Amino acid sequence: MTEKPLIFLDRVNKVYSSGEEEIFALREITVEVEEGEFVAIMGSSGSGKSTMMNLLGCLDKPTKGDYYLDKQAVAEATEDELALIRNKKIGFVFQNFNLLPKLSALENVELPLLYSGMATEERRQKAENALEAVGLSHRKQNKPTELSGGQQQRVSIARALVNEPVILLADEPTGALDSRTTTEIMEIFQELHQAGKTIMMVTHEAEIAEYAERLILFRDGMIVDDNKR
Amino acid sequence: MNFTESLLLSLRSLKANKLRSFLTTLGIMIGVAAVIALVALGQGTSSRITASIESLGSNLLIVTPGAVPPDQRERAEELNRLTLEDSAALSRLESIDAVAPQVRRQGQVVWHNENWTTVVEGTSSEYIEVRNSVVDEGRFFNRLEARRQQNVVVLGATVAEKFFESNSKGIGQVIEINQTPFTVIGILEKQGNQGYANQDDRVIIPITTAMDRLFQIQEINAIYLSARSADLMDQAHEEVEKILKVQRNVSSTENTYFQISSQSQILSTAEEIGKLMTGLLAGIAAISLFVGGIGIMNIMLVSVTERTREIGIRKAIGATRSAIMQQFIIEAVTLSLIGGLMGIFFGLTLSKIIDYFTPLSTLISITPILYAFFFSFLVGLIFGVYPASKASALDPIEALRHQ
């Protein structure tokens, strides 16, 4: 028996039915991603790349086919198991940060640990370390609204990493940032990649995709190109 | 996530919408306060009535005219009219200790320039014994004075207060009742303000004086009897019934339409009514608690909608269905419990205010407080479940897309 890769999608289909008609958001997708890869996913809107991200992030399950994440079969998991996988194995970075506005930066970073049931002291310590890693120790008590876009995205990267997930999923992470901040954020991603993190990132900007070492191109729910540099 | 953290989390989001949370809490607060205050009022009134019945005297039997069915109307006069002869006949019974017949009319009492409308009660000299009354100043009229139809009067405490600076100054004064002069020979001790009528607002004169001189009437309103002992109550009851029939030449199988009630009967009836009234008041109050619960549900539904995105984020980073459920239920229960606590405080205050500033009396006991608090918890739980399950069932993808 061969060792399975970190991410293994085996002939995955995602079908939405609207009335009589069936719409294939994803059609027979097979992808393998090894540990430590930095993958960019591109494609025009409606190409299936968002659906792909939702599946990878265990927010959704395939209609047909299998998905193994870190040797765990996602397609058969229950809703609570999915929540656990998201909590332990996946870190999300969203285009619009998705921080909770009422909580401080530190509390936002603590949130995943809260749901994994970690004791208060340990949780606080880990969250502070994660904030320090993105260079935001000095702003930990600030609310998201008191931070710049770049700072907010760094908080959300800290939040994504605090549970030491096996993959980092980024959905247009620089879509809401100016070019200078974009460079800052992408440098963080590169550092993480060099440190051995597995990163999958959806983007529609070619220059952002340049930071990745592998590019998967989607069109009409299918992979039309898969290039390693 | 442990319970303390969930609690802190919910307190935080309640604090984020202070006014809204307060207004929602107000609904529960009013409900709980209403339950506590109204139950206290019901129990207070009930215990006051019970006390006043108990003060009537033990071993007491009361004979009053009952209702006559339509087909017996022409015989009503002999079937249910009470007379002084009945009273005299009853007093000869072995089982009966004392007899106090009673007539009651409204009368105008005048002393110098003051006048007062009150109840004029005519009775026998045995009244004091039968009715458990105590003379505070002077004395009650005796058998001789009663037989001679003398114009002597014993005043209730309220009437005495109305006319005289002190009770002792009243003795020997002459007052007019319906323009007839009467000498005040005694003043009764205060019996307290009792449930249905003020027992102290009346004057008492010999029954013969009342019937022949003052009101010119033949029938009497009631006969109060005291049995020789508590064990003789049943026997006395039977004998009274028998004598009343003998007095009317009615055979023992025929009905006489009198009501013979004992103090214990009246007491248990009053207690029943008291419980019923308390239950009714509690029921009315419970409705407002229910309405408060609907308020909680309403605001929680609004909150779930407003926080769709937050729920999406929490789910994306690993919150399970039950974690989200727990968060919203704790919020709802926290709201209702805060309302419950404020309601207890407010309800107790209200009960005290009613007691001090109105003629009504309230009786606070721990049971309705515990019930009200428990129900406010239950209301939060029940009305929180639906919004919470709605929140927990949200699809994270949809929720994250929500603006």
TrEMBL record, chain A:
UniProt GO molecular function: ATP binding; ATP hydrolysis activity; transmembrane transporter activity
Record key words, sorted: ATP-binding, Nucleotide-binding, Transport
Domain of life: Bacteria
Gene Ontology CC entries for this record: membrane protein complex; plasma membrane
Cited Pfam families: ABC_tran
Keyword Disulfide bond: no
SUPFAM superfamilies: P-loop containing nucleoside triphosphate hydrolases
Residues annotated as domain ABC transporter: 7-229
Protein name, entry field: ABC transporter ATP-binding protein
Organism, scientific name: Heliorestis acidaminivorans
UniProtKB/TrEMBL annotation, chain B:
Keyword Secreted found: no
UniProt membrane topology term: Multi-pass membrane protein
Transmembrane segments: 21-42, 276-302, 323-348, 360-386
Pfam families hit by this protein: FtsX, MacB_PCD
GO molecular function, one term: transmembrane transporter activity
Cellular compartments per GO CC: plasma membrane
Subcellular location: Cell membrane
Residue stretches in coiled coil: none
All copies of domain MacB-like periplasmic core, residue ranges: 21-242
Predominant cellular place of this UniProt entry's protein: membrane
Origin: domain of life: Bacteria
Keywords: Cell membrane, Membrane, Transmembrane, Transmembrane helix
Domain ABC3 transporter permease C-terminal residue range list: 284-395
Family note: Belongs to the ABC-4 integral membrane protein family.
Protein name, UniProt field: FtsX-like permease family protein
Organism listed in the record: Heliorestis acidaminivorans
Taxonomic lineage: Bacteria, Bacillati, Bacillota, Clostridia, Eubacteriales
